[in-house]
Input
Amino acid sequence: MRNFDYYLPSTTSEAQDVLKKVKGARAKAGGTDLMGLLKDRLTAPDSVVSLDNVGELTGIKERDGGVWIGATTTIATVAANKTVHRGGEAVAEAAARTGTPLIRNRATVGGNLCQRPRCWYFRHPDYPCSKKGGETCYAQEGENKYHAIFDNVTCNIIHPSNLAPALWAHDAKIHVLGANGKTRDIGIDEFWVLPEEDMSKETVLEDGDLVTGVTYTPGGRSSGSAYVEVREKQSYDWALTNAAARIDLSGSRVKDVRLVISAVAPVPMRREDAEAVLKGKAFSEDLAWKAGEAAVADATPLRDNKYKVRLLKATVAHTLIAAAQRAKGGK
Amino acid sequence: MSEHVTATYRVNSEGRTIAHPAHHTLLEVLREACGLTGTKHGCELGECGTCTVLIDGEPQLSCLVLAREVEGAAIDTVEGLEGRDLHPLQKTFADLGAAQCGYCTPGILMAAKALIERKPTPTRADVCEALSGNLCRCTGYIKIIEAVEWAAALCRGESGARPADASLYGVCKEKPHG
Output
């Protein structure tokens, strides 16, 4: 790891000032991802701006019908928070399944959304892959067991954040303070960038932008949400597939539904075709499996990850069934 | 670019003022500047847990924390575990042989200490969850889990019977080879 100038501001505007004035400065929250990138020399900024002392970026508050989570709130805090458990079940579950207790005690919500992909070719300093500005996606013909089964044309990374699909199922907005000092809200559906659009980044954030928090809409009385993740190891593993769903019921009829899948494409994906299978109909397990079928219909798996298609179908069905169960009052 | 920073750390209740490069991790400062080599250097990426220390009582990975960020915090390492006597965790780990190569042990002891302090009567699931970020490639974990449960009982002031022998193969009353 290369040495860098280190800044420890205590307010958001001070942090913003440094990010604006110091060229190439990188914001750092928990650092559980950034430290790995620095050590592997995938990034080597001259300056790092720690958000550790920016108290205003930490906390969980109910605000105008939504739940605001500050960007530097730790994942452990989210997983244990009563407000999140009540009405944001998918978010609580996704937080609880992130990393390990040791990671969750340090890693933050903002960092979770902005972390770089885990593709082993991208993370390996010796592979000049397309994501790093090279010409080849080594996963296309190489070891691609854990790679994308959708949108896998130019780069086969999968989106790594657990919280992203869960927050999307709850129609989250991401709050960003721009380099111009103005704040803006970005709908979580508009936050992600495909490799075809811009290979150098995974989100729409520009240099100098700072994620200050996220606000999601908790479910009401006849609503339930769930997050399901499948992985090879019970403890500390990355998802092979995951899905988050929120279902609003009217009696046994599905009034509204959000289904978001992840770990299967470079970005999390809302599956409206699968939602349409359920919308307006009486919920049943059979219907959940049909929605699972619809969610994988256009998958384009690679040589070693065909198993992910079947796994995703089941992940979707189980997620929808768990969400519907909660909506019926079986929380 | 600033070469060194000077900071004061509170390690095992002792203040230490240290000059080190700004980009050094807590792990580097503990091992190289403080000479506290009980905390081990493993994967360097937060995957193995052997560098676990307590920061204000919470188990965290010292390889992923910039030392500067914990200035003023209470840092506890395995060296501070022993008081006048061995800590119950050290006693039960030794008695049960809950280590083979021992490289993961310092991290596991610290993660277990945090668990017992937070939850004096942990279930087996609690122990497994609390240690899920600490890899051990030798033991198969059973002895480690039993040692934590036994130590929790000792910390509660219970006499705490030693877990049954040969528990790896189920409770075995007779020795297989007479």
